[in-house]
Automatic annotation (TrEMBL), chains A, C:
Organism taxonomic ancestry: Bacteria, Bacillati, Actinomycetota, Actinomycetes, Streptosporangiales
Protein name: Acyl-CoA dehydrogenase
Domain of life: Bacteria
Family note: Belongs to the acyl-CoA dehydrogenase family.
Keyword Mitochondrion part of the UniProt annotation: no
A Pfam family that the UniProt record links to this protein: Acyl-CoA_dh_N
UniProt keyword Flavoprotein, yes or no: yes
CDD domains: ACAD
TrEMBL record, chains B, D:
Cofactor(s) required for function per UniProt: FAD
Assigned keywords, A-Z: FAD, Flavoprotein, Oxidoreductase
InterPro entries linked to this entry: Acyl-CoA_Oxase/DH_mid-dom (IPR006091), Acyl-CoA_Oxase/DH_mid-dom_sf (IPR046373), AcylCo_DH-like_C (IPR036250), AcylCo_DH/oxidase_C (IPR009075), AcylCoA_DH/ox_N (IPR013786), AcylCoA_DH/ox_N_sf (IPR037069), AcylCoA_DH/oxidase_NM_dom_sf (IPR009100), Mycobact_Acyl-CoA_DH (IPR052161)
Positions of the Acyl-CoA oxidase/dehydrogenase middle domain: 115-209
Highest taxon of source: Bacteria
Annotated GO CC locations: plasma membrane
Organism of provenance: Nonomuraea polychroma
All copies of domain Acyl-CoA dehydrogenase/oxidase N-terminal, residue ranges: 5-111
The keyword Flavoprotein is annotated on this UniProt entry: yes
Domain Acyl-CoA dehydrogenase/oxidase C-terminal stretches: 221-365
Family under the similarity heading: Belongs to the acyl-CoA dehydrogenase family.
Protein name in the entry: Alkylation response protein AidB-like acyl-CoA dehydrogenase
Length: 340, 388, 340, 388
């Protein structure tokens, strides 16, 4: 089991971090998805192709590397379809499709993934997906479609005929969703639905983003506690603040350990993956929201203002926590896997 | 007239005079002023205030009786709450007769709206570290600085302003209280959006705003003791309101949630039970405090425990509700998205949770105080606000 | 609804408190049950007859008064069968028996109550009760017995023939239990088993004791925080300690409010009693243990020693929390009563 | 010999020489001493200690390899742990050559047992406020006072003693470190029962106990810096042990509980899931720290986070286990009754949770320190211990 970062992974982290620091600082995040940032992110850093197999032009990396990248995009609250495209890429590595994988690796195609089934006939699909992540920004939807011959994975051009998209604002100002209605929309069948592994990997990927969100939130409030004065003392010198920050640090340490473990399991130990993935969502999702919440509260009144960034982390944390469904599903899954 | 009769009469008056629905914002001020005038004419404005200054000269008993009846109505008097609950009582307690004569009756009659100008970006929990300066110039004062978290400032005619008048003495000893004309040139009111996107507060900028010395409340450099009076009245009016109603329209309340979620899941049921337990625990505590108050026992700092618990419950409710409802709870149109965005507000307004715990520890449990580094240093040498 | 104490109740509290302060201080508590203390408690203060109806020589008080007394016996960690006898008296007010009620009111008889059924034939009983509260100290066991004619309440002399008692040490050094085996033990039938009200009243009575335990624990650590110095300052001046004590105070305030409400409901509002009783156990039992635990921890190392009293409160709190069964039963009951 | 070979040899030796079961207490000391002698002869005692003082002069790599293998065995060396982990390294780092010569080899060979004498009833978290006095008398020192929380003192031959030698200077500046003969007349060892009824600690009373000056470790009044060395070694040996094993025999562990409770109840299942989540979270954190250490990254104060989490987990486990099992869990014979009685120990030994949070806040997060009132006052004027 490998719970620490390799030198290469540390370099990856550093390069993504320093890129985002200049290309997508927090004031810019509020302006939403910027295609130019994505172009550079994918071009200069090759992030979109990180987990795409080498034969399709990607780097063929595993989830341990992906987690490092997602932690940084999470910490930066990167707007737009990066997580959605990553979700789709994770699915596509299980039903490889040259056109899509190559397009994603080259940064030409943004995509999103539905966990919900739609109905299909092999050539077209129909159905309504109530909340599709980054559904307005993604070019392609990858989704399971029930056909006469069983459930297959299909790709649907979201800007194509037979598709109606409605933008949905959400709590998370940095990443929207869309309602997608398909009525005879042309689709391409990619292959039969893979039996396992996609959902677990999505859990791990999301947990990596959440780890980044919580780390950035903790960093922000620790920095503030070192410069904000009340009653003639830095607020970080009060045990009321210090002890809460120490508890938040403890959560972060555990969350990071779990994310590393789950990513390692995804790459190296398939039998452990389901339990590790459920553990990751059950622990990290909650810890991320708690840390983001307390980071906001410890800012005092300024943390409640629209102008301050604290609420961006708080809202991303809450949106992420419920992204895969009510969080209790992960606990229920754990109970099942533990044969309780 | 005995108390029961007073109560019946109050109820009858309220039924007849309280507008059924709150009108939309813009017009609301005119209607609120109109309603206050009616309230005043009917003898329900300033019930315990002296007759000399426009009040009714009655007792706490009548005040409580009216408040108890009014709880079933939504009185459109929100913009007057700062004046009636905090700044008015301060002028009454600490002002000159001339100030009482000038300011109190117009407030009770709904002719003038007040706001309170204490907090600053660098002085939140620690109000006494504020930096807005008032410099004497003959028989007037010149004010420069910035205030924040000011409710109803964009409608206000007068503001109760705490400003620094001496930087060479420790921070509590160089403050003076004033009444400032909010229509004076150099006063800029800028709405401040909260994290839910609503603008319930304002920032106020003072740029060479003058105040006549006759609008000074209390002695020069004795402003902190005047502010303590105001804050005491604030705490009274907050703790009187804590836990009263409020759950009816809360999408994260037990009653709202039980209809919104799948209660066939035992884990969901248990979360609802937890919500019920915590809500009932606080509601009963608030009722006990209210019963004690009615029996003449003033709850004092224990009200801060209730405020702390309400802040925690508010966050817990919205948090658990979004967990139970899942993905759709974060859609912009969903009431829970608004609830989770507003939830931190209860913990951040009227004193943070940390301040509340200090108050409970110091004043209820009598624990030894934190050593203070800021009580003896001249203000100009003190670290304040945000700095490395 | 009455959530505050009347003048008479405040006097009752003061007299029980000052009696126990001298007659049963904590150093004495470790020595266990003292019949002489009980004789005075019942004689001078009339506590054993507090809720016994006046026609049987008692004071005919309600649970609101009883709660005041139990809070004080709880705060003093009074050893012996006071709670057990109170439980039996609560049951007997529903199936009145002159001999027993008069004996309890006069302080001649100590008793205990079983929630579990035994088997009976109208004259004798048989069965094993695994954990009977104060089973070694009680003279009489009141229990439901299943007979051919239905379930009846019976009284069994515990020192009589056909009864074998085995003392059980428990975590709670101040109050033991016993295994009671009955094999043809003579019994007296008191009447049919009452349909409702006993169990709920036991919940309220226990919660009152728990309220006293938590109040005494909080008082003890607050007092210590005012005299114990670390790093040149009283520990109570550190926010790390102060804020925790404030949170404990908040729990106490809520617990007291719930106990007053539940006791009022038992006396005045039968329809509210089941929900109030379950609420009392669900909230107060947990809060009591948490406060007793944190009071022990905040004492530092000395709180971990046998000689210090902190563990007595901690152990009573834990024993009380599980006295009626695993605490989740109260939450399950609430779910049922709320029609969830 | 390469590392893998070293490891294989160590394992083989352990398999052959570690007694299968721990023998009963009284005899245990003799057997422990016997085992230490064998360990020494085999070259596994003091692996990284210099050869000159009886060690093996090898590297951390061999030490870690042996420790990794030893984890699968129960070595009967508990009574030597203070000597090997704390007092021995202190003598090595700060003692004179004569002291190293006298004390280290007999320790490594299991001939002499050590204890550590820092804490006092009035000086727990704040060790430097201790009151035990050592007064110079020619070329010896006379000690009076009381120590507490001393493990293995009733078996100890030597104690590392921190005592106050000057009360006219601030508290950290008037302490001196000594090696005291535990068999000296005037040393009284009294077992101290913990709240579970077990006697794992002792109180030590010193009544005119003399110590030759040659048994002073470090300079006069420089004892605090020596103590910091000892405490650093203590922290290292605690954090190395944190989270290693321990769950196997824990009746409140997930594996033990799943067999003991009714898992058909969804609420019970969810509590077990919570227990699993928290246990795994900490176990993985400990494994990550261990991997970092093996990679040469010293975790430092982050070990205090692990210790804090372990203290909280230990209490949570026993608490939730007794809740799940219900009434029978509090019967004296039930393993959970013992577990809930011992559970607070982890939070109270080796630094309270509050101290751990301070360490994490100050040293991991780099937060500003609490203002200190005790660093400049002469000790005799300082409030210490328990007083009004």
């Amino acid at each position: 089991m490998k719970l620490t970062l390799s030198q290469e992974q540390q370099q990856l982290r550093e390069s993504v971090r320093s890129f985002l620091r200049t290309a997508s600082p927090l004031p810019k995040v509020r302006q939403g998805y910027d295609r130019r940032v994505y172009a550079r992110l994918n071009g200069e850093l090759g992030l979109s192709g990180l987990i795409v197999p080498e034969e399709y032009g990607g780097a063929g990396a595993g989830l341990a590397d992906l987690a490092v990248a997602l932690e940084e995009t999470g910490a930066a609250l990167l707007p737009g379809p990066f997580l959605a495209t990553t979700f789709a890429a994770i699915a596509l590595t299980k039903v490889p499709d040259k056109e899509l994988l190559t397009g994603i690796a080259e940064g030409r195609i943004t995509a999103t993934l539905s966990g919900e089934e739609i109905a299909g006939d092999g050539a077209t699909v129909r159905g309504t997906l109530a909340q599709v992540l980054s559904g307005m920004e993604a070019d392609v939807l990858v989704a399971p479609a029930r056909t006469a011959g069983g459930v297959v994975m299909v790709a649907v051009e979201l800007a194509g005929p037979g598709v109606t998209r409605t933008a949905l604002e959400t709590l998370d100002l940095t990443r929207g969703q869309a309602q997608v209605v398909m009525d005879g929309a042309p689709c391409r069948v990619l292959g039969p639905q893979p039996e396992t592994g996609i959902g677990d990997r999505l859990c791990v990927a999301l947990a990596a983003e959440q780890l980044g969100v919580m780390r950035a939130a903790l960093d922000a409030i620790v920095a503030y506690a070192k410069i904000r004065v009340a009653f003639g003392r830095y607020i970080g010198s009060y045990q009321g603040v210090k002890h809460k920050l120490a508890d938040m640090h403890c959560k972060l340490e555990q969350a990071e350990s779990i994310v590393r473990y789950a990513a390692w399991a995804a790459d190296e130990s398939p039998a452990e993956l389901p339990g590790a993935a459920a553990l990751a969502q059950a622990y990290v999702g909650r810890a991320c929201f708690e840390v983001a919440r307390d980071h906001l509260l410890l800012h005092g009144g300024i943390g409640f203002t629209w102008e301050h960034d604290a609420h961006l982390f708080y809202k991303r944390a809450k949106a992420d926590e419920v992204l895969m469904g009510p969080p209790r599903i992960h606990r229920a899954r754990l109970a099942e896997l533990l044969e309780l | 007239m005995d108390l029961a009769e007073y109560r019946r009469a109050a109820r009858a008056w309220l039924q007849e005079n309280v507008p059924a629905d709150e009108p939309p914002e813009g017009d609301a001020i005119t209607r609120a002023k109109h309603f206050m005038a009616k309230l005043y004419d009917a003898g329900y404005s300033g019930i315990t205030w002296p007759k000399q200054w426009g009040g009714q000269g009655l007792t706490q008993a009548e005040e409580r009786a009216f408040a108890a009846e009014a709880r079933d109505f939504t009185l459109p008097t929100y913009v007057f709450s700062i004046g009636l609950g905090m700044t008015g009582p301060t002028v009454m307690d600490r002002g000159t007769d001339a100030q009482r004569e000038r300011f109190l009756r117009p407030l009770l009659r709904g002719e003038e709206i007040w706001c309170q100008l204490f907090s600053e970006p660098g002085a939140g929990s620690d109000v006494a570290s504020l930096q807005t300066r008032a410099v004497r110039d003959g028989d007037q004062w010149v004010v420069n600085g910035q205030k924040v978290w000011t409710s109803v400032a964009h409608h206000a005619d007068w503001g109760l302003l705490l400003a620094r008048t001496d930087v060479d003495v420790p921070k509590h000893k160089g403050l003076t209280m004033f009444v400032v004309d909010m229509h004076h040139p150099g006063v800029t009111v800028r709405p401040l959006k909260d994290m839910s996107g609503r603008a319930n507060f304002n920032e106020i900028f003072f740029d060479n705003v003058t105040i006549p010395d006759e609008h000074r409340v209390g002695e020069v450099n004795d402003g902190w003791s005047v502010a303590v009076t105001t804050l005491l009245h604030e705490r009274l009016s907050i703790s009187a309101g804590v836990g009263m109603g409020g759950q009816k329209d809360n999408p994260a309340s037990f009653e709202a949630l039980r209809k919104a979620v799948d209660t066939s899941d035992p884990l969901v049921r248990d979360q609802l039970v937890e919500l019920h337990i915590r809500s009932r625990a606080l509601a009963l505590f608030n009722q006990r405090l209210a019963q004690e108050t009615e029996a003449g026992l003033f709850p004092g700092a224990r009200g801060s425990a209730a405020k702390l618990l309400l802040a925690e419950l508010t966050l817990f409710q919205a948090d658990v509700a979004t967990q139970l409802v899942g993905p759709e709870s974060v859609l912009a149109g969903h009431p829970l998205a608004q609830a989770i965005s507003l939830a931190p507000g209860m913990a951040l307004g009227g004193g943070t949770n940390e301040i509340m715990r200090n108050i409970v520890g110091d004043r209820v449990l009598g624990l030894p105080p934190e050593p203070r580094v800021d009580k003896t240093v001249p203000f100009k040498d003190l670290k304040v606000g945000t700095q490395a």
